[in-house]
Write a structure and sequence with these properties.
184 residues, mainly alpha, two-stranded antiparallel sheet
């Protein structure tokens, strides 16, 4: 079975163009780069994930499988899909499920995905709406994840960390020098 390197759709044998996205197929491709595809879905961590590019159930299953195997970018995409639910061609592939969203955020964050680390840290601090396990309040790991993302240069995490050091958010002590480092 061959798949489009741009959108991940199944290809017709001998095709010179993808039937789904129209990409020109210079050579036959047996697989596509899951990380590259998932990166193309991520707009920014505050704007979310562009799930409209997931044009086939096969692509969705590849992303979900990669996430279940610990791929950080794929787990971040799946966590975003659980935020609102994911339907494709009038078929529900994932329901809206805040607890599953957090579970996949943890998978992505532990795998080093700075988008997930930043989002997870903030979500743990602010609480997760409709979640049974993560209500609003100071979660002890919230700043840990913000800091991990900030160390990778995630701008949203750096912004949050700078204000944490300025105002004492996320349970941090006020430290203007650290705040200035984050702003830089």
């Amino acid at each position: 079975m061959k798949f489009c390197p741009e959108c991940g759709s199944k290809l017709v044998e001998g095709a010179k163009f993808c039937g789904s996205c129209g990409a020109k197929l210079i050579k036959e491709v047996e697989s596509f780069d899951i990380d590259k595809f998932c990166k193309s879905l991520i707009i920014t961590s505050d704007e979310g994930v562009c799930t409209e590019k997931v044009a086939s159930e096969d692509v969705f299953l590849r992303i979900k499988d990669a996430a279940d195997r610990g791929n950080g970018l794929a787990a971040y995409v799946v966590s975003s899909m659980y935020s609102y639910g994911f339907d494709l061609n009038d078929k529900e592939l994932l329901p809206c499920d805040p607890d599953e969203r957090v579970r996949y955020l943890f998978i992505a964050a532990k795998a080093g995905c700075h988008f997930a680390q930043s989002e997870l840290g903030n979500a743990l601090w602010c609480g997760i709406e409709d979640s049974e396990d993560y209500e609003e309040g100071e979660h002890p790991d919230s700043f840990y994840w913000i800091e991990k993302a900030a160390q990778q240069g995630n701008v949203f995490a750096l912004h949050r960390a700078s204000y944490a050091y300025l105002d004492g958010d996320y349970g941090q002590k006020v430290d203007w020098a650290k705040a200035l480092d984050c702003f830089k």
